[in-house]
Design a protein that fits this description.
By secondary structure, the chain is α/β, with parallel strands linked by helices. It has two domains: about 230 residues, Carbamate kinase; about 150 residues, 2-Layer Sandwich (VC0802-like). Helices cover about 45% and strands about 20% of the residues. Strands 3-4-2-1-7-9-10-8 form an eight-stranded mixed beta sheet, with helices on both faces. The mean pLDDT is about 95. It binds adenosine-5'-diphosphate, aspartic acid (ASP) and magnesium ion (MG). Adenosine-5'-diphosphate binds next to loops.
Amino acid sequence: MRVMKFGGTSVGNAARFQQVADLIALHRVADPRLVVVVSAMAGVTDALIQMSHQAARGEPDWIPALAAVRDRHQDTVRALGLPEEEARTLEAELREGLERVETVLRAVEALRELSPSTADLLAGMGERWSARILAAVLRARGIPARAIDADTFLVTDDRFGEASPDLEQTRARAQALLLPLLEQGILPVVTGFIGATPEGRPTTLGRGGSDFSATILGYALDAEAVWIWTDVDGVMSADPKIVPNARTIPELSYIEAAEMAYFGAKVLHPRTLLPCMDRRIPVRILNTMNPQHPGTWIVPEPRGNGRVKAVTLIKNLSLVTVEGRGMLGVPGVAARTFATVAELGVSILMISQSSSEQNICFVIPSSAAPQVVRALRKAFEREIARRDIEDIWAMDRVAVIAVVGAGLRATPGIAARVFNALGNGRINVLSIAQGSSEYNLSLVVAESEAEEAVRRIHAAFYE
Ligand code: ADP
Ligand code: ASP
Ligand code: MG
């Protein structure tokens, strides 16, 4: 049994849907027990999220935006040339979904309020549509496919927008629902990205979450492998949009791939590998547009230790500094700092502390920076009044670059090469991670210099 996930660009238009159906038909010959996971058509999730914010602000712009999403789906269905009966049913289903979105958006607009679960309900609609379209395309080719909404079995907590699965409950429900279908030779086409709380409130797994849906399903169904089909030739040594000559990495370990995903390689959702690790289920990344390419295998054990495998980048970050000469004498400043940030539910990407202990720096998403600085100033009110802490501030528009590979910390010369490459480009390093994992070296640079920095570091190791 294999799980195959197709991303948004892989189902971006009618021709792409057909291409995906070709691939499924091909692989189903070798492995009839296939489960497919599908994302929303490219751009649809963004559009739905934007519409929900517009409605919440009382801006009527969501109305034409929704019409555009409707047209896009209807045009796709028409271009697919499905049998009449199939097309009619599909169009009716799409219409029903779109009407539901319209009703909800009208309510959001009237109330000027978007609750987190309503936001997730809306954001996840694109997957319901693409799963129905893909299932219809497959049926039209004689493959008995059925669209399955993942909220019927994928149980999550109630952290809307970034929910975590309850793997055991999901496993029980997925097996009860999907195994009988597989027994009957039916191919389930499951919506990525979405789930529901035990009470049935809609959730999403975070942006790019369909990758995670696929591995959750792989775990739940004891799959032999999970194949993630995307728009590039596997996981590459850098984002090919930034480094055009980036190369495919043929093999990566779970931890290396997870580290890359966590540090910004968008090709995988940061939590994708977690469900597969325990059961050692291999994950493969492939290109729908270039299916002959072997892509990347993600496997349990790292090979080629001490080699730089990839350079990653995350933008839209802020570097927060807590600084003061008196900090040396104040016990627990670091603990209190991080406790304050944790209380706000903000996750920290990287920490560094100067050896003189005159400051603590850490990196967080820019969206959280104002509230974090406010909370820290309040938490250290007394220390600030006594001048033990001189200032707490955030530097915006910074980026974290991570150089990833197993065993890097134990390998001499890597840092020197990285800093040389940046020095030659006169790129200033604002901070370096101290004591980060042995799988990466991470550093902070100004966002305006970040892409150039990635290119220079990549060139230092790959050219
Ligand atoms: P999908 O819609 O298939 O989920 P995504 O857009 O989420 O696809 O992810 C694929 C994109 O990830 C690629 O087009 C590429 O620009 C980007 N990317 C970033 N870093 C990497 C990397 N190291 N290797 C491959 N792709 C990367
Ligand atoms: N459609 C969702 C998103 O755009 C999930 C995914 O593509 O993986 O975030
Ligand atoms: Mg993705």
